[in-house]
Amino acid sequence: MTATDFMSRYEQEEEALSLADRTRRLERMARFARMMDTAVRIPGTNIRFGADAVISLVPGLGDGAAALMGLVIVNEARKLGLPYHKMARMIGNLGIDAVFGAVPIAGTFFDVYFKAHLRNIDIILDHFEYDEHDLKTDMKDVTPRL
């Protein structure tokens, strides 16, 4: 198999990706980003946080683990055919989140504010000209009721 054959086959697979399949993938990524960044609302406020902020409480490993989980979104973006410069921005968002999030205590507050995973989803949705409201990302609200 030559490089031309491989690229031809890759382009055919990319074209074969139906609109429904792309939408399904985008919905799955958006749900994952929401779980990582905004799954729980602090009662009585509009402040939301997710698994990223909770994982970052583990000293030394938490932010690295959250960044590695964020690479799942970058990999899906690659599979959907996102340009390299947009994927570089996405990796930059994860890097900023990991570096600044690694600062003890203040880094957790940074994780609550920065929301790298949602920023990355916005880059993908902007590329494919989707609106966030076009996707079905309903998740059960796990916020405690007072």
The parts where pLDDT drops under 50 for at least 5 residues are: none
Biggest sheet, spatial arrangement of strands? 1-2
> SSE order, as H and E?
HHEEHHHHH
Radius of gyration: 17 Å
**Which bin fits the share of residues in helices?**
55-70%
Please give the number of β-strands.
2
How much of the residues is beta strand, in percent? under 5%
Instruction: Give the end-to-end Cα distance, rounded to a whole number of Å.
Output: 63 Å
Mean pLDDT: 84
Secondary-structure-derived class = mainly alpha
Please count the helical segments: 7
Per the principal axes of the C-alpha atoms, what is the gross shape?
globular
State the major sheet.
Answer: 2 strands, antiparallel
Notable characteristics:
146 residues, mainly alpha, two-stranded antiparallel sheet, 66% helix, globular
What does this structure look like?
By secondary structure, the chain is mostly helical. The protein contains seven helices and two strands; from the N terminus they run H-H-E-E-H-H-H-H-H. The protein has a two-stranded antiparallel ribbon. Strand 1 and strand 2 form a beta hairpin. The longest helix has 19 residues, at 19-37. The chain is globular.
